[in-house]
Amino acid sequence: MQTNLDQHAKTLPGAEEAERILRSCVHCGFCNATCPTYQLLGNELDGPRGRIYLIKQLLEGQPVSDKTQLHLDRGLTCRNCETTCPSGVTYHRLLDIGRAELERRVERPLGQRLMRNGLRAVIPRPVIFDALLKAGRTVRPLLPEALKDKIPARAPAAKPRPAPRHARRVLMLEGCVQPSLSPNTNAAAARVLDRLGISVTAVGNAGCCGATDYHLNAQNAGLARARRNIDAWWPTIESGAEAIVQTASGCGAFVKEYGHLLRDDPAYATKAARVSALARDLVEVLAAEPLDTLQRNASQRVAFHCPCTLQHAQKLGGVVESVLQRLGFDLSGVPDSHLCCGSAGTYSMTQPALARSLRDNKMAALESGKPDVIATANIGCQVHLDGAGKTPVRHWIELVDELLSQG
């Protein structure tokens, strides 16, 4: 695609990358065939090809408006189009560049600004999030359905974690909302890793991965959180931790981008590249271990929802399913498993109508094989899908932990 960035756009931090991405697109339209929002809305501007044209116009200095912002906001950043694209267009990076510049050019309505600032103030801060979640549970019966289905009715209990005792050590990103919404997930991961001779080293001063800020166009704030995590992890990395494990695939996808996002920071580029190289989704660690010795006969039939951040961003589609089958689980088929559930970070709150339609479609596909339980690998997807109030949705590692505890 030919492009000619205007003088202002050429001064942006991502100018060279944006121009390279724009020129790599051959506008073939294959991306629209697998784009969830294009399938729902049928509008060229609500598919990746149309959004690429909008960003091109923006960076070439053409007029933009709140309608431009609407179409860019509707993008899920599910990266399904990247899996489909024959030209290797890194669409999500162009979208981040375009959204950040549009945020500077077009002022949002007050309501949108308040919501986005509120999400940024609450989600990355576990103490605040936990307090508000508990308050929300108290008044849950009085809330409208749109809010009620985002607040789990009760807090599940977390079982104890094993004390570190093995020579093999990993770090674990605890996450922002997961400790409150699904506190047993990381504990279950620690117990399963312990069975495999791997101990989890706690690093209390590591916090939010930065994805919430970054994808709400507060990119500097997101990168500041990335730097704080690198500083927190670095002493343990230097002392021999073999991996940084994420149980939420959304966080994992972002941590694996630290090296790229901080490549021009002289103080952090080398460390960020090392952190990204050590980042592992939990399933990557388990898949490399001798799981056959742990095999059991599972009684539950499971449908696995593979999050977009696992299959499209981290390219790990089918790996959790393989691990579950190796451990003896009975998996049901899931039609259109490549499509997004509509959670997409904060998307279910900023675009609730579209998110609900995507969730309904996904739940129909997941329940088509009549599973006893639905498993996933990302807390956002888990809460979003479970909010439908149908087949229960849990993190897959909890099912594994319970199975192994029976043996």
Structure description:
This protein has 407 residues and is α/β, with parallel strands linked by helices. Among the domains are: 9-105, Fumarate Reductase Iron-sulfur Protein, Chain B, domain 2; 293-405, Rossmann fold (3-Layer(aba) Sandwich). The chain has helices at residues 15-24, 30-33, 36-41, 48-59, 66-73, 80-84, 91-105, 110-122, 126-138, 145-148, 178-181, 184-195, 211-215, 219-238, 249-255, 258-261, 269-278, 282-287, 308-313, 319-326, 347-350, 352-367, 379-386, 396-405; strands at residues 168-173, 198-201, 244-246, 279-281, 301-304, 330-331, 373-376, 393-395. The strands form two sheets. It has a four-stranded parallel beta sheet with strand order 2-1-3-4, with helices on both faces. Helix 23 (379-386) links the parallel strand 7 and strand 8 (393-395). Helix 1 (15-24) crosses helix 7, helix 5 runs antiparallel to helix 7 and helix 12 (184-195) packs across helix 24. The longest helix has 20 residues, at 219-238.
Considering the chains and any ligands shown, give keywords for the structure.
Fumarate Reductase Iron-sulfur Protein, Chain B, domain 2; alpha/beta; single chain; 4-stranded parallel β-sheet; 24 helices; glycolate dehydrogenase activity; 8 strands
Which helices and strands appear, and what pairs or packs with what?
Elements: H1 15-24, H2 30-33, H3 36-41, H4 48-59, H5 66-73, H6 80-84, H7 91-105, H8 110-122, H9 126-138, H10 145-148, E1 168-173, H11 178-181, H12 184-195, E2 198-201, H13 211-215, H14 219-238, E3 244-246, H15 249-255, H16 258-261, H17 269-278, E4 279-281, H18 282-287, E5 301-304, H19 308-313, H20 319-326, E6 330-331, H21 347-350, H22 352-367, E7 373-376, H23 379-386, E8 393-395, H24 396-405
Parallel strand pairs: 1-2, 1-3, 3-4, 5-6, 5-7, 7-8
Helix pairs in contact: 1-7, 4-7, 5-7, 12-24
